[in-house]
User: What shape does this take?
Amino acid sequence: MSARFPVARPRRLRRTSALRRLAAETRLAPADLVLPMFVKEGLAEPHPIPSMPGVFQHTRDSLRKAAHEAAEAGVGGVILFGVPAVKDAVGSAGDDPDGVVQTAVRDLKADLGDTLVVMTDLCLDEFTDHGHCGIVTESGHIDNDATLERYAAVAAAQAAAGSDVVAPSGMMDGQVAAIRAALDAAGHPELPILAYSAKYASAFYGPFRDAAECAPVFGDRSTHQQDPANADESLREVLLDLEEGADMVMVKPAGAYLDVVRRVRDTVDVPVAAYQVSGEYAMIEAAAERGWLDRERAIDESLLSIRRAGADIVLTYWAVEAARRLGELRTGR
Ligand code: PBG
Assistant: This one.
């Protein structure tokens, strides 16, 4: 008898939903989620982004309202991206004290205080007329060190406005050290840096570039963002950023780079974030719209998988929806 039947029965723990919940190895909480938000200067009405159904370029007012909803859902934080009214070659709007991001930060901090973390993406691509993340030389190259000086100025402006965390996403060498020094010199030694340390030159950023109006007018970002072929390189980038003073590190995109998330998690002892980017969002939304996927299950599975791979913090455009669903789960949906 016993020889004919298996002794080990992993299915015992899968029998009921209550058992499955008790035995789950991975849990996701609203506080783990960060919502990326877009705010555009001079906009009269919120503007829907066609390639990201449900995501908007916000007006100053609609941003406040949406951030309020995020706080109510228990989301851990928001990260702000700004679209200025005027762009130029050096991205002057990025460090204008009254620039679109600085204004938005002051609004949200005044409204929400400490109920959630207000982060600011720190880059130049939304502010430059050529759409590149830095200063472009005459030959069309991105000048690393000239760009660092601009990042330092943007960091000081975001800090002065009250940002809780600055998140440099430009992938310039030495950017974390330059920003740390600028923050310290400006009297903000307590302000943390979330470094986009392992950021790949990815096709999955497509819809974002519509939302942030920052597609490069020539060339691409492959001289500064990482080659998708490389994973060891991510560990070098992460360790460099930590040496330079990063307080948290990020892997981006998330879904196609879960191996990198896991390796980073196993290597460092700071919080690890992963960014589920615009293209990951668009793929599931588009398939669900056609009835090809169960939308909610696909969203929840994608988020849980990023967490299972080792991310402590997940940046996702579904943050509010997912947080509400997690809230329901906790109270026994
Ligand atoms: C650069 C930046 C990008 C994203 C976040 N920060 C775009 C890029 O590097 O081209 C992409 C986010 C997304 O696709 O959701 N400031």
